[in-house]
Design brief:
alpha+beta; 2 domains; Beta-lactamase Inhibitory Protein, Chain:B, domain 1; globular
Length: 172
């Protein structure tokens, strides 16, 4: 095998191994332990206490990533379920009046946080879509959601005309 082919094979295997840890592997089933999950996926990017003694582990694939996986464990430390949460179904759960902690438990850490006047913030999440959009939540100084919605992702697309078309499609 030529050295060029050998190098290509090594690089390909490395990329394949890196992708293998991206989403929860098929071997993780309800009943798996937290240790099983950590061995398969590495350290979580967040941990949240949920009602009923459930612990939620966050695996954000970012900051540039477009997926965040939430894995829920019962009080005995066994996996109940996992789901990818950066999608429109989960965005709809975030409504004005929720706290920052509620949003973190629902969507996980944002891709970006920006400060606003009077102490508020805008949190933005990238997610898988074809329209160069972020999903955003705006918080007041007390950390309460005041508004939510879609916005064009800066630096994506091909100029201001595309941004205007994208926002118009998102509003419809």
């Amino acid at each position: 095998m030529s050295s060029r082919r050998m190098m290509l094979s090594i690089v390909s295997l490395g990329l394949l191994a890196a992708c293998a840890g991206y989403a929860p592997p098929d071997t993780l089933r309800p009943g798996s332990t937290e240790a099983d999950v950590r061995q398969a996926m590495g350290e979580p990017t967040g941990r949240y206490a949920m009602p009923g003694g459930v612990q939620r582990l966050e695996y954000a694939r970012g900051p540039g990533g477009r997926h965040t996986y939430m894995l829920d464990f019962d009080a005995q430390g066994h996996l109940q379920q996992w789901q990818q949460v950066l999608d429109e179904r989960h965005f709809a759960l975030v409504v004005p009046g929720l706290s920052r902690d509620d949003v973190l438990r629902t969507l996980g850490r944002p891709s970006q946080r920006e400060g606003m006047i009077r102490g508020g913030q805008i949190w933005s999440w990238r997610y898988a879509n074809n329209d160069c959009l972020w999903w955003q939540a705006q918080f007041d100084a007390q950390g309460v959601v005041t508004s939510v919605g879609y916005a064009p992702e800066r630096g994506c697309g091909d100029g201001p005309d595309r941004t205007a078309r994208t926002v118009t499609r998102a509003i419809r």
